[in-house]
Write a structure and sequence with these properties.
218 residues; 6-stranded parallel sheet; Trk_Ktr_HKT_K-transport; NAD(P)-bd_dom_sf; alpha/beta; elongated
Length: 218
């Protein structure tokens, strides 16, 4: 993929390095001259300019990108970048960083955001996930579809132990996408048995989350 990242601070550079390691093409757009440091991520293409300006985005060829990541430390700038990328340049996937959780409600498809990543929320979710065995934990929201990535860890005394995946009667708008078992990532098949300690990852809409709990016996 070709990925454009608005904001070449510590977060933007870290994302760029990870994507380059995964063999993606990366372009970093940075408006502050003191943070324009191409030597820090040499494999990336660097553009000095304000990603909130249409002319800069045009010059950078952002319409050729598969993904745009708005990763600045300013929520207003991230919203503007997201909106321009989606509405002016028809970028297929827009991911935006949320710096202030109070602004999270703005990061929707109305502003061109497909996925909003709130570091405080994700950290809280990770803590909750680590201590909440047997309860459903929301890890991420996919704004374009209004679906969530949710997780439930089966406790040692789970009544589902030994039961096949096909025996779980999930609601219509929910899907079991992955089972994490130790260091294994399992793509669930209907005949796969469940075990205590399994981490079940679902994609589901918010309104069916109570039904998922019921289907799992919680």
């Amino acid at each position: 993929m070709r990925v454009a990242i608005a904001g070449a601070g510590a977060v933007g550079r870290s994302i760029a390095a990870e994507l380059i390691d995964a063999r993606h093409q990366v372009m970093l757009i940075e408006r502050q001259a003191d943070q324009f440091e191409p030597h820090t991520v040499e494999q990336a293409d660097w553009v000095l300019g304000d990603a909130c300006e249409v002319s800069i985005l045009e010059e950078s060829g952002i319409e050729q990108c598969d993904v745009v990541i708005a990763a600045t430390g300013d929520d207003k700038a991230n919203l503007v970048v997201s909106l321009l990328a989606k509405t002016e340049f028809a970028v297929r996937r827009v991911v935006a960083r949320v710096n202030n959780p109070a602004n999270e409600w703005l990061f929707t498809d109305a502003w061109g955001v497909d996925v909003a990543v709130s570091t405080p929320r994700m950290l809280a979710a990770m803590v909750e996930e680590a201590v909440s065995v047997g309860d459903l934990v929301r890890l991420m929201t996919f704004r374009q579809s209004q679906a969530n990535l949710v997780e439930l860890t089966l406790p040692e005394e789970t009544p589902l132990a030994g039961k096949a995946v096909s025996e779980i009667s999930l609601p219509r708008d929910a899907a079991l996408v992955t089972i994490l078992r130790g260091d294994r990532v399992i793509v669930p098949q209907p005949e796969d048995p469940l075990e205590p300690g399994d981490e079940l990852l679902f994609v589901a809409t918010s309104d069916v989350e109570p039904e998922i709990r019921s289907a799992l016996g919680y």
